[in-house]
Amino acid sequence: MISIKSAREIDLMRATCQLAAQTLEYIAPFVKVGVTTEEINSLCHEFIVARGAYPSPLNYHGFPRSVCTSLNEVICHGIPSKSDVIKDGDILNIDVTTYLNKFHGDTNKTFLVGKVSDEVKKLVDVTYLCMREAIKTVRPGGHIGDIGAIIQEIAHSHGYSVVEDYCGHGIGREFHEAPQVVHVGKAGTGPEMKPGMTFTIEPMINLGAKEGKVLKDGWTVVTRDKKWSAQFEHTILVTSNGHEILTLRKEELI
């Protein structure tokens, strides 16, 4: 059952989503050489809790930290650690989900650290483009398959692969709701988009093959070929005449 939010629920979604966005804005200056992902986690946790919210990932099905930090070849669900020290040339995805007033807001961003190679910069830029263009397909009467179709088209045109084992999702009172928002597909297929629907679009794009594997910690997903992966995510509301990006950050122009 796909949840259609009321006007009041949408206002509450805006609040939690803006807190998630503000958390990414806050943490940006700390993403630099020599900082550990555990430090990133602690700073995000303190920022969220100080504003009367809770970090949704913490203890979610046993996840041990407050944010996900995915470095380089990590596709998603990286666990912050004291041993993961950010180095020059790294890329780091920070995935933030906040729980405020009984609603979740979910967003992530891939940060460039120092002198990143041109090859990797292009991957990150194209991944953002995939998300941005997918968001533009969101409108009443559209279909969830429209999202995956445009992501797949753009990524493949640049020689990249699209991760298929993990996808976007409905969000609201629950962290993960219907529908699943896969990042490959065929336009005009899947559930119809209707005003009041809220879901994430979060493409994971790989330099190499699409396949990943879960490490022994039970969470961290890395590319099988060890080539690097990038991701961006926003929570989107379907409006009466289009869409609203609920987790839009001040620095963004979409």
Report on the structure:
The chain is an alpha+beta fold and 254 residues long. It has a single domain (7-245), classed as Creatinase/methionine aminopeptidase superfamily (Creatine Amidinohydrolase, Alpha-Beta Complex), CATH 3.90.230.10. It is 26% helix and 25% strand. The protein has 4 helices and 15 strands. The protein has helices at 7-27, 37-49, 118-135, 144-157, and strands spanning 54-55, 68-71, 74-76, 91-100, 103-112, 161-162, 168-170, 177-181, 198-201, 204-206, 212-214, 221-223, 229-231, 234-238, 243-245. The strands form 5 sheets. Strands 1, 2, 4 and 5 form a 4-stranded antiparallel sheet that branches. A hairpin with a 6-residue loop joins strand 7 and strand 8. Helix 1 crosses helix 2 and helix 3 runs antiparallel to helix 4. The longest helix has 21 residues, at 7-27. The protein is globular and about 45 Å long. The relative contact order is 0.18.
List keywords for this structure.
four-stranded antiparallel β-sheet, 15 strands, single chain, alpha+beta
Q: Could you give the count of β-strands?
A: 15
Q: Quote the distance from N terminus to C terminus.
A: 30 Å
Strand share of the residues?
15-25%
| Overall pLDDT | 98
Rg, rounded, reads 17 Å
Count of separate DSSP helical elements: 4
Shape: globular
CATH superfamily: Creatinase/methionine aminopeptidase superfamily
Q: Determine the CATH topology.
A: Creatine Amidinohydrolase
The CATH class label is Alpha Beta
As a percent range, the share of helical residues equals 25-40%
Order of helices and strands: HHEEEEEHHEEEEEEEEEE
CATH structural architecture: Alpha-Beta Complex
